[in-house]
Write a structure and sequence with these properties.
Layout lengths: L9 H4 L1 H8 L5 H35 L16 H15 L1 H4 L8 H33 L1 H6 L13 H16 L3 H30 L23 H5 L1
Helix pairs in contact: 2-3, 2-4, 3-4, 4-6, 4-8, 6-8, 8-9
Length: 237
């Protein structure tokens, strides 16, 4: 088992960051509705991810690490908390404009409290994302040392979840005026560009070498109803 099981919840997990960007360009009434829906759907997605987290961590404690070809999927565990960080912080930044003056009795106070809660909760979840990131990096030490890692489509997990961590790092650095975190987030974002190019080139190489997109090849070789047939020479004998 890998955190790939979290993927069904990913459409919900990315709602928060999208809502945080969209709300900046909406009128007050629409902005408030977007924030409420964004927080609701983000919370559902994150709580579903927490359930999968428990099974994933139990599997890591009781069994071996995932197979080398699918081990990059461990980076998917970075995404839920990191996307939640950037979603909560970006949505909280727009509460001053989105909340009406009489919201919960005092709109300005509600916006102020919402920002404080979102910022500190963001730091908490950002730490969780960083922890999962280092666990995933450490799990790949043996793969790099022994060079036993064939390409699989899960290699794209090196990219997508870590973009969320870069965005979350920048969001936390912005609200806490941390120059170090801003530099770290920018460096991560820049590093992901050549890493994406490398993964893409390795995918093309794998297709040419018939390691993927061929029957009985790739991480899904046992799926799809493919049956290995004996060669014509073997059957003739």
């Amino acid at each position: 088992m890998t955190p790939i099981w979290i993927f069904p919840a990913y459409p919900l997990i990315i709602v928060g960051p999208m809502a945080g960007i969209l709300v900046q360009h909406m009128s007050q009434n629409r902005a408030l509705n977007i924030i409420i829906c964004g927080v609701t759907l983000q919370g559902i997605g994150f709580m579903i991810s927490v359930m999968v987290y428990s099974a994933y961590i139990y599997r890591l404690m009781t069994q071996k690490l995932p197979q080398e070809s699918v081990r990059p999927g461990m980076f998917v565990s970075v995404g839920p908390s990191a996307f939640t960080v950037s979603g909560l912080i970006t949505m909280a930044e727009s509460t001053n404009r989105a909340l009406p003056s009489d919201f919960m009795g005092d709109g300005k106070m509600a916006a102020f409290v919402s920002k404080i809660i979102a910022n500190w909760m963001g730091v908490w979840l950002w730490g969780l994302a960083v922890w999962f990131f280092f666990v995933s990096v450490g799990a790949h030490y043996s793969c790099v040392r022994n060079r036993e890692m064939q390409f699989a489509m899960t290699w794209y997990s090196f990219i997508f979840p870590n973009t969320a961590l870069a965005a979350a790092t920048l969001a936390v650095g912005k609200v806490f005026s941390s120059h170090a975190l801003n530099i770290a987030g920018t460096a991560m974002g820049i590093a992901l560009v050549p890493l994406w190019a490398f993964v893409f080139c390795m995918m093309i190489r794998a297709v040419i070498k018939k390691q993927i997109l061929w029957p009985q090849k790739g991480e899904d070789k046992d799926e799809g109803g493919w049956v290995r047939r004996p060669s014509s020479t073997a059957s003739a004998r």
